[in-house]
C-alpha cells in the first residue's frame, strides 16, 4: 500500500528527502510547494500509540527548520498516515484529521483507494487550456486595447496573431531596435 502511494509522489516529481534521519516517519517527500511526511501502520493499535510521535518528529525536525524563502512552506506541510487495515474507528480517524496542531493530518486506509483522491496536491491549472483565465486571443485583444494609437500604427498587421513564433517576435523586435539605431545616426 505504501509503495503505491510512494509511486504517486514519484510520478508527481516529489523528491525524497534523504538528508534527515527519522525514527517515526517512513519518509518525507518535498516539492517547491508542499512537504509530506509519510508513515505507515499495520494496525489501529499501532496507529494510536505512534501517530503523535510521527507528527512531533515532522514538526521538530523539518517544519521548525524552514527558514528564509522556505519559511512560507510551513503552511503547506502534511502528515499522511497510512493504515493497512480496511477501516479504523471513524471517530478516532476524525480526531486525527481534525487535529490541526502543527499541520494537517490525512488518514488513508486500505479501503480509501484510489489513494490519490485523499492527497491534497497543488493543482497544475496551466496544463488544461480550458481552465486558463485568458487564452492567447483574449490576451492579445486586451493588450491591443492598452496601447496608444501611435504605438499600434508602428506594429505590423499580424503582430497580434497568437500564432507567431518566438523567433518571429524576436525578429520583429530586433528590427525595431535596428531601425531606432539607424534613426540615431
Can you walk through the features of this model?
The chain has 185 residues and is of the alpha/beta class. It folds into two domains: 121 residues, Restriction Endonuclease (3-Layer(aba) Sandwich); 59 residues, no CATH class. It is built from six helices and five strands; from the N terminus they run αβββαβαβααα. A hairpin with a 4-residue loop joins strand 2 and strand 3.
**First-residue to last-residue Cα separation:** 72 Å
What is the averaged pLDDT score? 78
Q: Which ranges are low-confidence, i.e. pLDDT below 50, for 5 or more consecutive residues? A: 123-128
Instruction: Please name the CATH topology of the largest domain.
Output: Restriction Endonuclease
Strand content is: 5-15%
Main beta sheet: strand number and arrangement? 5 strands, mixed
The portion of residues assigned to helices is 25-40%
Précis, in short:
The protein folds into 2 domains: about 1-120, Restriction Endonuclease; about 125-185, no CATH class. Helices cover about 40% and strands about 15% of the residues.
Note the main attributes of this structure.
alpha/beta, 6 helices, five-stranded mixed beta sheet, about 180 residues, Restriction Endonuclease, single chain, elongated
List the helices and strands and how they pair.
Elements: H1 2-11, E1 15-16, E2 27-30, E3 35-41, H2 44-61, E4 77-83, H3 90-98, E5 104-109, H4 136-146, H5 149-154, H6 166-184
Parallel strand pairs: 3-4, 4-5
Antiparallel strand pairs: 1-2, 2-3
